[in-house]
Amino acid sequence: MTIIVYEGRELTRAPQESVLECLQRSGVPVPSSCRAGACQSCLVRAVAGAPPPEAQKTLKDTLRTRGYFLSCVARPTEDLTVSLADAELRCAARVHSLSPLSPTVVRLRLCPEADFAYAAGQFLNLSRPDGLTRSYSLASLPGRDPFLELHIRLYPGGQMSTYVQTLRPGDQVFLRGPAGDCFYVGGRPEQPILLLGTGTGLAPLYGIVQEALRSGHRGPLVLLHGAARSDGLYLGRELRELAAAHPNLTYLPSVLQLAAGPPAEDPPTADVLEGALDTLLAARYPSLRGFRVFLCGSPELVTALRKQAFLAGASRKDIASDAFLTAPPAPVSPPPSATGSP
Asked: In what order do the strands lie in the sheet with 319-323?
């Protein structure tokens, strides 16, 4: 067993326990969300000792060289002295507006109080005052929009969903990021691009499409957005107008069953496809050789579509994805003798 030292306290890490689990079990308020090494909300800093390489491999060099690592996937073989992430990694922001996009999705726009450089399609971490943190992709366009736009799905009784619905213009929130590799990179303006996502996986794809068009991309851009029901589709009017203004953009909304729920828009649109994304992808694009592919959705969906795109001919280096990981249940509260619960 190894020892984790935090603020002079020696915490014994149980076998197979991550640094995050050890710290939270001991009452240390470390923010966390996905607990799978994807969202980067659980960053801590090694003050003494070397964090395991696998806990740093996805981080920027500027973070690795300063000792930061992902505590949720860190299972060190030597003792570590750690501190929480510096305040410099956080950015305060003010709520610009909150508005509905569909019965289950809201658009949250935030105005950062300091420089927040990002690429359309990346994600950030949004924190409640008590430290609860969730990851959301950016749908806004840097350099054009004076705000950061997030599309947030509302889960009944969800901890962050409930909090978001209480926000009002002018309220202060805290952000960390950005992160993620799902963004447009120029250099091949004629390359065909296929973007697939479900639910709020539309947010990064919407940003990527806008960035590609702004950058003068001339190749075909195809956006396939799926939902279980028609009322799960959103931004349909905006995307149809965008496609009408740009002949190289095709917008393909789809649902699993057309009759399962009310129409997404009034009047109802006739261009909504029926079927699962993998089925529609195979039927419409049996060959993806030469394509750049962007995937956003659940881990299971992204994994399946990534494999399908590769087998259809897309190069591995041309497939970019961000899986949307639902936060697991909150950890069990520490015993009464501990200093508190995160």
From this structure: 273-274, 249-255, 221-227, 193-198, 292-297, 319-323
